[in-house]
Amino acid sequence: MSIKYVGRPVDRLDGRDKITGRARFAAEHDYPDLAHAALVHSTVARGRITAIHADAARAAKGVIEVLTHENAPAMKPPPSRSLLNLSSMVIGTSVNYLATDEVHWNGQPVAVVVAESPEAARHAAGLVRITYEELPAVVDFAAEEPNATPQKGNALMPAAANKGDAEAALAAAAVSVDLRFTTPPHNHNAIEPHATTAVWDGDRLTLHESTQTITWLRSHLAQRFGVPEGNIRVLSPYVGGGFGGKGSVWAGTLLAVLAARATRRPVRLALTRAGVYHTVGGRTPSTQRVALGADSDGKLTALIHTSVARTGRVGGGGEQITSASRHLYDSPNIRLRQSLVQLDLLSNTFMRAPGESIGTYALESAMDELACELGMDPIELRMLNEPARNPMDGKRFAHRMLREAYEVGAERFGWRERDPRPGSMRDGRWLVGMGVASAYHPAFQLPASVTVRLGADGGVVVRCGLHEIGVGAATVQAQIAADELGVPLESVRVEVGDSDLPAGPMAGGSGQTASAAASVLEACRKLRRSALDLARKSPDSPLRGVRDPQARDGGLYQGSRGETYAAILARAGRDHLEVAAGGGMLRFMAKTVRDRSRWVKAASGAHFCEVRVDRDTGEVRVSRWTGVFDVGTVINAKTVASQLRGGIVMGIGLALSEETLIDPRTGRVVNASLADYHVPVHADVPRIDIHCLDEPDPTMPLGLVGVGEVGITGVGAAVANAVRHATGKRVTDLPITLDKLL
Ligand code: MOS
User: What beta strand segments (E) does 512-619 contain?
Assistant: First the structure.
């Protein structure tokens, strides 16, 4: 019997290369003649450049070129966004950098310095003097938010929903809460800031890039630089964190490619930390209203969730702030609306559970407040309103185990120790609070092409241009292939992160693993079939006449009859067998539409949080955490737990510290550094207890549901609810800083 690998906590196959420094990231590729680029950022939010004084920069030591809109070769303008051209969905902004004198946000790149060293480039960038004709700019979200207009939805991301008459039901409800929430903008802070090394050879481009979207980046660059896609190779074997920030094409990448073309030198552009804040979008701020009405037993009669978010005038889009409210609770009356304002700021973009992470903060805080109003246990209130079918349209849930998640979590966490009275639990000067909240994130898939090759030595190579953004993406596909083919894990190699490989899915929407797994499973099935056909053609194969052998022990066997793949290939005189699977867009779309008409698919979970609040200073420490998740089949117990834990850590930042501060007069981000923008550090994070229910989702490949984003959803509310329990104070404005508790 072969060992099965799916489910086991297999170490990441890329782990050793990373900790020994052998892994090469995008800014770590050396070329003879390599030049370095640095960006010059606008200092006004909106206007026109009237003059650029670059003589001092050009004269500085080591400077090769200063590119501005006056001398840069033209790029083609970005195509407009359309669902029909999926690669257009990853456009960061619509600005045609260095082809225009227009400035659309404070921080927009307006010049690029290319020099012999990164230091020389940055120094010279500081010498470029620019004057502007300033135009009025609208940058203050709080001031503009009342003038929001309804978000345009689409089939994948509806922006509104209505059932019954929620306002009337709210007015008539025996018990109700009606709360307004505000959440700040957030920025990306991956360990590896965005980086590009661009190398032109004639009209062929090699790009080392830190990206979550190899395929669409390549097609975007082909369009912008007027070369065939086949002339571009994007290499991205390692990505030091993505979180959605590397899911679109931003200025740094485009300008590195442009600078390399203009200077005929390989060019590396590694964004500074501040450079990421000024050129890569982040999470929208929001205002939200959640109003809930219930009868005196706690049955919901009205659920209203509305939101306002912002985009940039030159890009960005709606986030799914109210989407979990479509699925979490049964209510005869539901009203959901998402609205937007457009500001003269850098566009928003994907950031771990875009919309859902802040939307669940509001919804799950309001549920907790309703439980307080009702004098009910918050878990009991949730279970009372747990829907049997999708509340909006009665569709079936493909799979849903929130009840079990709460049951298991309550036990592991010790929920019954909780005294429900606010402020009643103490530990010396600390007020102790316990809170719960639900996690919810939809399950998506994208098309993925793979090939699987079996060598004469029995070795297996899986090839797919997917993205290793630090999650163990390749490792889990190796586990799946090893099981499907019945070979040891050591004999499987998974090649990822290269546009020369079969096109992988974007690493986004928590969909990469399931997307690739579907095709890996299909390919392995085909490969077993091909191997069997090959064996059966040979008169002396022990597999002759065998119909349905098992893949195990490095070959195909039925009972004691069978042989290894190596023997099958040797007998047939073949040095390898290779099959391809996946990637058919039409077939994929048809399946997606059929699936979506039948099922609501999602990952979900229950967060249990304990906080300690200093009764004198209001300091909040998260002291314990349990998360129980329904994410279908667990492929790798270690990487799955790490993903969920990472989501919770990021959520603790969202709850307690993360906040991008934008000067309302100038539109400038004023805390563009890790010194001023606070993400949780080890001292802020307790041991996080993760448990997965590990029941397959019957509609997903191998029953697995993506785990990248569900972990962060609900976290803001779990913390806020624990703080409410500790202090009696409901904080409706993130982050929960100590001034809000005094
Ligand atoms: Mo995710 S926000 O789709 O990387």
Answer: 550-552, 555-558, 561-564, 576-581, 599-600, 602-614
ipTM for the predicted complex comes to: 0.96
CA end-to-end distance (rounded Å), the chain: 63
At 388, list the tokens: 């049997």
How would you list the strands of the sheet with 102-103, edge to edge? 102-103, 47-53, 129-134
Tokens 């309302």 belong to residue: 664
Residue 608, classed as helix, strand or coil, is strand
Measure the CA–CA gap between 556 and 524, rounded to whole angstroms: 13
Instruction: Give the whole-angstrom CA distance, residue 148 versus residue 138.
Output: 13
β-partners of residue 180 are 289
Q: Which atom of ligand 1 is nearest to the CA of 247?
A: 4
Which protein residue has the closest C-alpha to ligand 1 atom 4? 244
DSSP 8-state symbol, 373: H
Active site residues: 709
Q: Which of 194, 469, 513, 709 to mutate to test the pocket of ligand 1 (most atoms within 8 A of CB)?
A: 709
Q: Using the atom order of ligand 1, give the atom closest to the CA of residue 511.
A: 3
Atom of ligand 1 nearest to the CA of 244: 4
What is the H or E stretch that residue 529 is in?
A: helix 512-536
CA of 506 to the centre of ligand 1 (A): 9
- The packing angle between helices 715-727 and 637-656, to 10°, is 50
- What residue type is 481 in one-letter code? A
Model pLDDT for residues 401-429, shown as the tens digit of each residue:
999 999 999 999 999 999 999 999 999 99
Question: 1 falls in which pLDDT band (50, 70, 90)?
Answer: very low
Pocket of ligand 1 (CB under 6 A): 212, 242-244, 247, 350-352, 354, 508-509
Which domains occur in the chain, in start order? 15-20+447-594 (3.30.365.10), 31-136+191-241+246-279 (3.90.1170.50), 143-186+283-443+601-741 (3.30.365.10)
Backbone phi and psi for residue 315, each to the nearest 5 degrees, phi listed first: 150, 180
Q: What is the mean pLDDT of residues 671-682?
A: 97
CA 247 to ligand 1 centroid distance, Å:
7
- Residue 320 DSSP SS3: coil
- Spacing, Cα 510 to ligand 1 middle (Å): 7
**At which residue do the structure tokens 């940039």 appear?**
312
pLDDT, tens only, 387-397: 999 999 999 99
Query: Does residue 731 contact residue 455 with C-beta atoms inside 8 Å?
Result: no
Which amino acid, 252? G
In angstroms, what CA-CA distances link 703 with 31, 346, 524, 601, 691? 45, 39, 17, 11, 17
pLDDT beyond 60 at 723: yes
